[in-house]
Design goal:
mainly beta, Jelly Rolls, 1 helix, 14 strands, about 40% strand, elongated, disordered N terminus
Length: about 210
């Protein structure tokens, strides 16, 4: 009888990894831009993480609708979820009809949203460089965002990536890593014997 054993670390169906808020990590300097905003309620206020009481703290971004806030991480990172917080002091009118787009083109599904909070989760982790939050309000003339968090792995090189400066080497590609994808670490010709997975870094062996 042959038994395959695959070694990896899982918890509740997910790989255990050390997620961080990528917008508040040493060495990561996101470029934040937006369409027109009110007074000094500019897009960079989404990093304040002070309060959702917008009028009291004056620490939220208020974008004239229809408008957007775009976050460029400057490199691709493995992202597990994006969270955005709206203001709590106006009944949710400035947090309506919000869409989330990643990598400049892909609209993603919101896992949860109410009047002051939204989250989009990615399983498996998604390679993301840009996050754009767009709003089209019908009850208010602004989209107000008080804080955004992008959770993921705080290095721009995923396991298996071999681009310059990456602290990780390619997985075990069938061709000796000569065609390992520099963008996402994928082995396009498959894995070497004894390895599997998208990155060819999950080992398996057979007992007889």
């Amino acid at each position: 009888m042959k038994i395959k054993i695959i070694f990896s670390i899982w918890f509740c169906g997910q790989v255990i990894l050390s997620d961080r808020d990528l917008l508040n990590q040493p060495g990561i300097t996101p470029n934040i831009t937006s369409s027109r905003y009110f007074a000094d309620w500019s897009a960079d206020k989404i990093l304040s993480d002070v309060s959702q009481e917008a009028d009291l703290c004056q620490c939220c971004a208020a974008i004239i609708t229809t408008g957007y806030i775009s976050i460029d991480l400057m490199h691709k990172y493995e992202v597990s979820r994006v969270v955005a917080l709206g203001r709590r002091d106006n009944g949710g009118a400035q947090f309506e009809n919000i869409t989330l787009t990643v990598n400049d083109a892909e609209t993603v599904t919101l896992t949860f949203k109410n009047d002051t909070f939204l989250v989009s989760e990615f399983l498996p982790y998604r390679l993301i460089r840009t996050v754009t939050i767009s709003g089209r309000n019908t009850r208010a003339d602004a989209m107000t965002i008080c804080n955004v968090k992008v959770f993921g792995l705080p290095y721009s090189c995923v396991p298996g990536n071999n681009e310059d400066g990456c602290p990780y080497q390619c997985g075990q590609c069938r061709d000796g890593n000569t065609t390992c994808n520099n963008d996402d670490g994928h082995c396009p010709k498959g894995c070497a014997a004894g390895y599997k997975g998208y990155l060819c870094n999950t080992g398996e062996f057979t007992l007889t």
